[in-house]
Structure formats: structure tokens, C-alpha cells
## 1
Amino acid sequence: MSAKDVIIALDFPTREETLSFLDQFPAGEKPFVKIGMELFYAEGPQVVRDIKARGHKIFLDLKLHDIPNTVKRAMAVLSRLDVDMVNLHAAGTSEMMRAALEGLTRPDGTRPLLIAVTQLTSTDAAALKNELLIDTPMAETVLSYAKNAAASGLDGVVCSPLEAALVKERCGADFLTVTPGIRFADSAAGDQKRIMTPEKAGKSGCDYIVVGRPITQAEDPVAAYRRAVKDFWG
Ligand SMILES: O=C(O)c1cc(=O)[nH]c(=O)n1[C@@H]1O[C@H](COP(=O)(O)O)[C@@H](O)[C@H]1O
């Protein structure tokens, strides 16, 4: 899969709202999309199949985090869905990540990309230190999780765009950085703490930017998507 793309987070509560959002795009324009917990829990795997059948690449964002055996078996189930990317929490440890990779690999040897969430983009330095009790600075923490993910055979990490360059430098150019926390200069940050514009993200080593509300809540979502693509490519 060629890296560098804009992924739209389809954070909608129903299939109807999701499809009417996608229907705003012209027939030939098929953005890479992310299906997360809200839509998946509401509609189940069929909505994944339906959106795939419409020609979209899909990042299935369920952020698995459990004991290795449970994650392995859940990944084996997810591998039957024809998605392009899935994720888990690196905090589940290297043993869990290796088990996930095993479970995700289909009998024919193929599998979706497997990406590890490092530290959520809604976590700031104070929460890292005071609530998670991690004394290591954010960038070093993210890098350490990224190294564990790389050593476990994963394809990349979810991190904020602020850490993407460091991860690429230390884990290799082919190790993917998938970065939410994307905001236009005139967007509300909301609950996101570690943020960057699409333009700066494009210059900071991000392979994929994940953009939700700045596109889905825009007055003209198609124009907002195209603006993100244009700014990201620079
Ligand atoms: O794994 C993710 O996709 C993810 C990880 C992370 O650290 N931060 C983060 O925001 N996300 C997801 O990325 C999307 C960002 O949405 P907006 O904040 O609306 O742009 C949401 O669907 C989040 O669930």
C-alpha cells in the first residue's frame, strides 16, 4: 500500500448517517476511511463489508488491548473482514502484539496492516505524568512503544504528528506513522491535546493523517476533505 493519505474518521452512530455522509462525494472519489468503536458497536461487521463494497480502503480502529490469547483470537475473527488496517494498544506488551500478528495472519499468509497506538493524542504531558504515572517525557515514551511495536513485527504506530519525525528517524522510513490530532488552523481542538495542521503534518514524517470532526462536522465536508488532502501534500 502506498503511504501518505488522508483517512476520514467515520465517527457516526448509524449506518444511515455514515452512508449519507459518503454519498456527498462524487462517484469516482473514494477516500480512505476509518471505522471506529461507535459505528462498529452500533452496526457490527456488516457495515464494514458494505463500505468496503463501495470501494473505500478501511482502517478498522477497535484498539484491542487484552491478554495475548484473547487478542490473538479476536484478530483472527477480524482478519476475515477485508480491511486494510487494524490497530491495538502497544501498552498490551510485545507478547500481546506478537500474538495479535499471529492471529491476524490469514491461512494464505496475507493480512491487513497492524498498527499500535502509542499514547493517545488526547493525552498531554501532565496526564502522562500525573495519571498514568509515566515519568519519561511524551516523545521518548512514544518512541519506546514504537520500538516495541517494530520489534514485534508490526507495520507502524498511531502517534501524534508531533512525534512522527522522531519515530520515522529511529524506527526506519518504512515503519508507518498514522497520526490523528489533526486540526486546521481555524478548527476547534476539542478533546485533542497533541495537534498539528495537515500542512505541517505533511512536512513532519506522517504517512497517514486521520481527520474526523474537522471534516465530518464541516459545513462542506467534501471541500474540507479536499483542503486536508491539498494541505497535507503541500
Ligand atoms: O487510533 C486512533 O485512530 C486514534 C488514536 C489517537 O491517539 N487519537 C485519536 O484521535 N484516534 C482516533 O482518531 C479520530 C480523531 O477524530 P477527530 O478528533 O474528530 O479528528 C477519532 O476517531 C479517534 O478515535
## 2
Amino acid sequence: MARFEKVVICGVGLIGGSFALALKAAGLVGEVVGLGRRSETLEDALHLGIIDRIGADWSDALNDADMVFLGMPVGQMEAVLLSMVPYLSDHTLITDGGSTKTDVVASARAALGARIGQFVPGHPIAGAERSGPSAAQPELFQGRRVVLTPLAENSPACVDRVRVAWEACGAQVCNLTPERHDRTFAAVSHLPHLLAYALVHEIADRENADQLFSFAASGFRDFTRIASSHPEMWRDICLANRPALLAELDAYLTQLLRIRVLLASSDGPGLEILFDTARKARDAWFGGQGVTSEE
Ligand SMILES: NC(=O)c1ccc[n+]([C@@H]2O[C@H](COP(=O)([O-])OP(=O)(O)OC[C@H]3O[C@@H](n4cnc5c(N)ncnc54)[C@H](O)[C@@H]3O)[C@@H](O)[C@H]2O)c1
Ligand SMILES: O=C(O)C(=O)C[C@]1(C(=O)O)C=C[C@@H](O)C=C1
């Protein structure tokens, strides 16, 4: 397997840090250079052994770099790409881990111009509600999917190189178009985050919030875990995927109204059918993840 002698991670948090650690564990990388917004974060990443050194600037970091991984919130990507492009050489591959793809591809086209073929967009479907380098783990991507949304301008060799890197991290790679990607994740990732934030916010706003939280147990914990996720990251994702997310929100509101009608009319059989259908679908999905559900 061809090694990456020098990888630059710009945005060394949960995802960028885990990618670096996984590549290191696979023995696929020589030197990992970190760049970022805050020097304290980069110092942490250095002390945790995620990066081998902190890049002085783009010129230093990109010198002889084989690959650059963008691990910052999607709203930052265009500015970051614009700042790196003057120092980019022909052989350096760029990829990212952003949770939305249509906007990231548009940002990359605007910033990279004729160099767009060097950018292979990606998204690991693995993560956590924790952020920063201290949350990074080498096994985060083991057995998880990574979606690539290759561009017409990408050479098959570039796409293959990014696929190989993710496979070395233990991931299974598949391809989607950016539009299909964004519609899919609006439904199964972005909407759930919006709902978790909404529920916690609604409870927290009440006068007796402390008392309510004191009784909240595992059901509340499981439903709301992802409301502890990074607010800036989720602001950017929601705004970037606004049309698809609004459509999912409308579908969910329709479902809630349907449940409201069943409840208001004390329609026990109707509620039970709906719950049973949902439980079967959830169990089938969960079982397919290689985890057995509880009765
Ligand atoms: N958290 C998840 O579960 C998850 C999963 C898959 C993909 N993603 C995506 O991965 C990316 C990173 O998410 P994360 O969870 O690792 O976040 P994180 O907060 O752990 O890390 C982001 C890092 O980017 C840095 N950063 C922010 N702005 C920057 C800039 N302008 N230039 C350089 N560095 C900058 C931050 O300082 C931080 O170190 C996001 O695009 C997110 O959508 C997140
Ligand atoms: O496990 C979590 O905390 C996540 O939210 C991970 C999760 C998701 O499954 O929705 C979040 C955002 C991503 O872009 C990919 C994965």
C-alpha cells in the first residue's frame, strides 16, 4: 500500500485527529503536520501524539505534502481553501470530513479553480458528541462507512488514493453524488440533531427545568446525547443543508401531527400500530448494524 509521507491535518479535532491517529496506527503515514485556528488546540494535539509537529504556516505545511485533510466546520472550508491555494503544488491531494457535501464542493470550486481535480470530497459516517483533539480515537472509523462524492474532474487515481486511506482506517467506502448525500443525511443525521437540541432547549426554558432534569433518566439521555454536540459545527451543517433539512422537518411535523390526532382522540389501536411499525423498522436497522436488540 503506497504510504503518505507527509499529511497535513487542518482542524485537528475529533475527526481530523482520529483520521491522523488511524493512519498512524495503519502505518500508512510518515509525518503528520497540524494546522488550525487555536494554538492551544494544536499544542494539545501535539502532546497527545496526534500530530508530529505544528506547521509554521501554509507554505511550510504544504511543502512536499502528499495529502491535506480539512477537519473544520463546513462554514470555514472556503476561507481555509482560499488561504492554502497559493502554496499548493500539483501532486498534493486534498480531502475533507465535512458533514455536508453540496456546499463544500461549491466552496472548493470557488477557492481552487483549475485545481479542483485535486480535491476529493469525503464524509466519515462516524463521530460523537464530544469534540476537540482529546476526543480523537484511532478506532473511530473501524467498521464504519465513509461516503466519497467524487467530482468529474477527479482522476480515478486521486479518488482511489483517498479510498485506500479510509480503508486503512478500517472504514467501508461508498460513493454518492453530493446532492444525494445531503438529502440522505438530512433525514438520518441532521434532523435527529435538530430534534435533540429542540427538546433539551424546550425543557431548559421552563421554570421548573432543574426539577425536570433531576428526574430525567436513560430514555432522555439516549434521545438527547447528540444535543451535547458542537454548536458551531451544527449551525454550519443546518445552514449548509437548509432546503433538505426544511423538507425533513416538514415531514416530521406531519408525523407529529398524525400522532397528535391519534392521542387527542384516544386512538389506542392507532398508536399501537404506529409504534409497532416503528419498532420493527428500528429493530431491523439495529440488527443490521450487527447489534441485537432487546425485547
Ligand atoms: N462530530 C462528528 O460526529 C462528525 C462526524 C463526521 C463528520 N464531522 C465533520 O467533521 C468536521 C470536524 O468536526 P469535529 O467533530 O472534528 O469538530 P471539532 O470541533 O472536534 O474539530 C474541529 C477543529 O477545527 C478547528 N477549526 C475551526 N475553524 C478552523 C479554521 N478556520 N481553520 C483551521 N482550523 C479550524 C477547530 O479549532 C477544531 O480543532 C466538521 O466539518 C463536521 O461536520 C463531524
Ligand atoms: O455519534 C454521534 O454523536 C454523531 O452524531 C455522529 C454523526 C451522526 O451519526 O449523525 C454526526 C454527524 C456526522 O456527519 C456523522 C455522524
## 3
Amino acid sequence: MTDMLAEICATKRLEVDRRKAHTPFADLEARARAATPPRGFRAALDAKAATGHALIAEVKKASPSKGLIREHFDPHAHALAYQSGGAACLSVLTDEPYFMGHDDYLVAARAAVSLPCLRKDFLVDPWQVTEARALGADCILIIAAALDDAQMADIEAEAIRWGMDALVEVHDADELERALKLRSRLIGVNNRDLRDFSISFERTYELVDRAPAGCTFVAESGLRDKADLDAMAARGVRCFLVGEALMRQDDVEAATRALIVG
Ligand SMILES: O=C(O)c1ccccc1NCC(=O)[C@H](O)[C@H](O)COP(=O)(O)O
């Protein structure tokens, strides 16, 4: 695990312990049961990918690599713009210390649209999956570099219990192999090196051919424009996760449409 990821996960562990101390699990479960049913995240991606680029559009205010990305930040409006622009799904960052995210942003974004939403956060405990469902999330993120096999399986089991999808994020062939021991067949390759934040599309190109048939394969991070997506599509990638390049635009809806249809 990189130093950066270890630091983020340690911070998250403390935050989760604090939250657990304040929220009885029975209450959290009751909220998760009362939430609107999960919208099929992987199914929405597969449906779009059948006819073109399938986009997970990310609601992202800031990041460790870039600092503040968007000053006038309105998750409700951005979610609507992404939906109108043709995104298949949304990703909403809820981590506060490193991404200036918030749980409320997920709630606001999901309420604005009919698209399935990923709670983009650093999961270190299955408790966070139930919390994600209580917030309305349809999908959670499992970062292979941050977890051992047993932790990944426990987090995935909780997602399955709630009828949610799990996006399993990998950086290399070893992590892909570990990811494929899980039941989820929704795999994301992060092009960002978490040691120096450099981007290499080679990560995606290396792994796309190793993903077994039947996998929904997502290229994540550093994608700037339609040419990037087209280049990846030529190598067999159909699904893309894009944040910063869209969040920096004045007209988010037009930028989303341009990314998908040119
Ligand atoms: O975005 C970062 O700087 C970052 C740093 C450390 C860990 C994770 C990070 N990003 C999380 C993501 O997965 C991206 O937000 C997502 O793939 C979108 O990337 P981009 O299109 O480059 O904003």
C-alpha cells in the first residue's frame, strides 16, 4: 500500500470508529432498510456500453493531487447536468478530509436524478456499506490496494446483502487476480499512481485483455476528452470514470455530452 493510501485509510478508520460510537447499528440498519431500493449500477453501465461509451460521471470538489477543483460546487445541479448529458451512472465523493466531499452531496445528487450512484469513499469496514445504503448509494468501492482478501470479501458480502453493486478497483495484474476471487464482475482500473499521482493509460491497456469475458471493465482517472475515450475504446474499453475534466467545465452538461458523443 502506498503511504498516501495508508494515511487515508488510517484517517478513515478513526472516522468510522467515531461514527460507530455515535450510531447504533440497529438504527443504521433501519435507515438502510427504509432507503429507496438500489438502482442497478452495473446493469446501467452495461446497457450504455452496448451502444457507445458508458460514463460514470464523478461529482468531485477537490482532490489530494489537484486541491480545489471546483469553487462553485452544487452536487444537485452537477448531477442533473451529468444525467442530461448522457452519463450512465454517477460517482459522488463523500470523503471529507482529502476530497472535501460530504455524505450530503451523495444524498443531494441521487435525489436529483434517476441514475445509479456510487458512494466514492475509502471503505475499511463493512459498517460503511450499510451506511452507504442508508444514504441511498447503489454501489460501493472496494480498493484492492487498501484491503486484504478477507476484508474485501467481508465488504463485498455486505454489499450483496443490501442488493448493491461493488466496483472493485485495481492497479495491476496481482490486484486484478485478487479482485477476481470476489463475486463482483465490475472491475475498475485506476490509471493514477497513488505514489506520485502520475497518470498512465498503460495500466488500463495492460489489464483490459486479462479481464475475463463477462466482466464490466471500467477505466478510471486522468481521462480528459473524447479522444482519450476513443483511444481506449479502440483497445476494447467501454466504460469510463471521469471527474476532474468534467468538473472544471462551465457547461457541465455540454461537456458530458461532448465526451460521450463528440
Ligand atoms: O484524484 C486524486 O487525486 C486521488 C488521489 C488519491 C486517491 C484517489 C484519488 N482519486 C480518486 C479517483 O478514483 C478519481 O476521483 C476518479 O477516478 C476520477 O479521476 P479524475 O477523472 O482524474 O478526476
